[in-house]
Specification:
Blueprint: E1 20-31, E2 34-37, E3 39-45, E4 51-63, E5 75-90, E6 99-106, E7 110-118, E8 122-132, E9 141-150, E10 157-166, E11 176-187
Antiparallel strand pairs: 1-2, 1-3, 1-11, 3-4, 4-5, 5-6, 6-7, 7-8, 8-9, 9-10, 10-11
Amino acid sequence: MSLSKVPVHKCLEKIQWLLGVWRSESATIQLEGKSFSYLSELKCEHVGQPNFILHINGFNVQPLTNDNKVSWTNAIELKPFHREMGFLRVNPKDETINNISYLNVQNVGLSNVEEGNINGNSFTVETKAIGRSCFNKDPSVQLLRREYQLDEKDANILNVKVFMSTSRTDNTEQPFEHLTIQYRKISNE
């Protein structure tokens, strides 16, 4: 049996709009006063269990054109730079609850547990626990907040923002906007 034929677990039906492969139309990273564009691909899949599996891959790109607009079509070379994967979970015992958790691990030596709420065609999660490998350099991540919003006019567009606080962020400051990504769905598989 093909896994694409396995039904989505009932508790995840409210976010099944996330399933598929999404590629960035625009993606910007901001860190320590610097900003640059990159490419990102998000794949969300399931195997019928009460969780979705997320794979997120970021690429540094050398664009073909001089206008500095990074795109999948004008990239000369894709250089992998960021990888993360994880599991989105909703309480399987009560489909009416809108709580969601994201268990995430990244190739930069971070692992986190993030929790939040589903609100229609959007959800927000924020870190509850952060693990860090022993040889990571400062600044350390203190907080991540991810906001996923399906476009109201086009269900093939997904907007994602990631806010972050680090050990260099003043405790009185709000988390800064670290990533801004607009994805377009390229496949439902």
